[in-house]
Specification:
By secondary structure, this protein is an alpha+beta fold. The protein is about 55% helix and about 20% strand. It contains 8 helices and 6 strands. Helix 1 crosses helix 4. The longest helix has 22 residues.
């Protein structure tokens, strides 16, 4: 059941989905849509699924491409209907949806700039970690670990806090005392 201030009627849920797709102004996959709409208890999952099915059947939204099933966009007809629905959506629901969308987009952008790749090697597994910002590589390193479990653990830790890795590596690289000891 939606939390206090959420939507209960299928027609309202359909309007909110159209509002979300219009505000996003891009293709959204189902996972992101449910994350956004359920983050603050705006809709109930089964109401969401029913509303999505009806929106697809009426042509107000469509599947983005055959390669990206589960990714949706609003149609031109959907935009026209959304303009009518938007007036009916309570301000607090629109506001929460916009905030959740911004947070989700920011998180997606951060994730798109963080890359990890795990490849098997004769001695174990190679974990390659990269952070890009503004089209430039900020940090890139590769480390060999003994097994697959350790590789996934190392990649996940990096993905959770790449700025900490950058900071620690820079501390080592710029540590004058460390290099003085090695010169003696």
């Amino acid at each position: 059941m939606p939390e206090l201030g959420g939507l209960y009627e299928i027609a309202d849920v359909k309007g909110l989905i159209l509002f979300l797709l219009k505000e996003a102004d891009c293709i959204l996959d189902e996972t992101r849509m449910t994350d956004i709409l359920m983050e603050d208890g705006l809709v109930e999952y089964f109401d969401y699924k029913q509303a999505m099915e009806q929106l697809l059947m009426t042509g107000l939204i469509d599947i983005a491409s055959m390669e990206e099933t589960g990714s949706y966009r609003i149609t031109e007809q959907g935009r026209e209907v959304e303009m009518e629905y938007e007036k009916e959506i309570p301000y607090n629901v629109r506001s929460k949806t916009q905030q959740a969308l911004k947070k989700n987009m920011r998180r997606q952008k951060e994730n798109d700039q963080i890359f990890t790749e795990i490849t098997p090697s004769p001695s174990g597994y190679s974990v390659c970690c990269n952070v890009r910002e503004g089209g430039e590589t900020m940090l890139s390193y590769e480390v060999l670990v003994p097994d697959q479990r350790t590789a996934y653990y190392a990649a996940e830790r990096f993905r959770k806090n790449p700025s900490l890795y950058y900071q620690k590596i820079m501390e080592i690289v710029l540590d004058e005392e460390l290099f003085k000891k090695n010169e003696d």
